[in-house]
Amino acid sequence: MNRTASKFVVACALQLTAGGAWADLEADIQSILALDAAPPGVVFEIVSGNKDYLEDAIPKVSAASERLRARFEGISIAVVTHGREQFALTRDKADENQPLHDLVKTLSSDREIPVHVCGTHAGWFGMTPEAFPEYVDVAAAGPTQVQQYRELGYRLILVR
């Protein structure tokens, strides 16, 4: 197989994997929507090695959140992102990622859905909490933040 064909096969495999991930997200949302009563909350956990992943993930989380709140008015929702993708939310990436930043600001400010990034992961790359805008909460550790929500009874939805 030549190099171009190999790249095509890899690209197709990645596309199929991503499609499967979104299918899993839909299945998780459907299982919550089918409940008779709302859970205490829902936490979306986003972890990816892809720096551009939030461009797709956050709009899907936003749409899912609207559906959850249409079914269960006032349900608590949170987002925790703690992979390479979280760096799209830094202040210095705001112009480059303006639609993403606008949506995250809407989620956190207008819709009361906190968006957390991982301070530990940021620290590994020399970033302090000040590297992120005020509408992004810098948690000490992303996995710990997810666990705290789970201890409150939140249902976990992995967005991978």
Give an overview of the whole structure:
- The protein is an alpha/beta fold and 160 residues long.
- 49% of the residues lie in helices and 15% in strands.
- The protein has 5 helices and 5 strands; from the N terminus they run αβαβαβαβαβ.
- The chain has helices at 3-33, 54-71, 98-110, 119-124, 142-151; strands spanning 41-46, 76-81, 115-118, 137-139, 155-159.
- It has a 5-stranded parallel beta sheet with strand order 4-3-2-1-5, with helices on both faces.
- α4 links the parallel β3 (115-118) and β4 (137-139).
- α1 (3-33) packs parallel to α2 (54-71) and α2 (54-71) runs parallel beside α3.
- The longest helix has 31 residues, at 3-33.
- The radius of gyration is 17 Å and the shape is globular.
- The two termini are 30 Å apart.
- Mean pLDDT is 89; it is low at 1-20.
Describe the structure using short key phrases.
160 residues, 5 strands, alpha/beta, 15% strand, five-stranded parallel beta sheet
